Amino acid sequence: MNGFLAYLAAVEGDDERCVRHVDEALASGVAGTRWTLWARGMLDLGHGRVEAALSRLEPMAGGHHVAETRCVPDLVEAAVRLGAPDRAAGAFTRYREWARYTRQPWAEALVLRCRALLEDSEEHFTAALKLEGRPFEQARTALLYGEWLRRMRRKADARTHLRTALETFERLEAAPWAGRARAELSATGSAAPAAPAPGVLARLTPQELQIVRLAAQGLSNRDIAAQLFLSPRTVGYHLYKAYPKLGVASRGELGTIAL
């Protein structure tokens, strides 16, 4: 039970509660360890710590326990974001076979989402959203599709899916995922339902603001790049452009600004 509660806390982005339930699950014996690994991986993925998420999920994904099976779509997302889709290939093959056996629309929707990421395919995104899915996972698919559309410079189309995702995440109190959807909406030039950037932050472009906020949270350039589907070099360039606008000289000084 504590392992499952740790996963729910991870979805909400509650680090303290997640770690507490993880510790309690581990203290109770081996039975909860798979859930705790998934929970910690999910917590990392939600907060944009993509490399850490992949390291946690890769060794466990593709097994027969429910957590080992259900974590595969999270593994696929982390692997694709880091530009290492092959690290999820074997687990996804087994997951696809499992989904075919279960014949559940929500499972097939996750297969389609994984294929959309692995094959860079709009067709699979739209097919996944047509199937009846579980609200949190359906919102994640809408978010990923919205991110994909923005990268294709189809900002108006992206906003529709990003707003849908944001509404669901806020209803489910999935704070890190809502924050990601809000940031993506801002990057499309849309006024997301959040306070506008105050003062000095208004000098930044939407992408610079996105990157600076992630950097201020302690994410590395590589993790930021993975979250935003950019190269680490591009992230470094945007930070280099943002620092003079903010009146800071380095990443370590970002904590002095209200972001």
TrEMBL record:
Spell out the protein name for this chain.
Regulatory protein, luxR family
In alphabetical order, the GO MF annotations are: DNA binding
Provide this UniProt record's keywords sorted from A to Z. Answer: DNA-binding, Transcription, Transcription regulation
Q: Which SUPFAM superfamilies match?
A: C-terminal effector domain of the bipartite response regulators, TPR-like
The record ties this protein, via CDD domains, to: LuxR_C_like
One record GO biological process: regulation of DNA-templated transcription
Organism in which the protein naturally occurs: Streptosporangium subroseum
Is Transmembrane one of the keywords? no
- HTH luxR-type domain: residues covered: 197-259
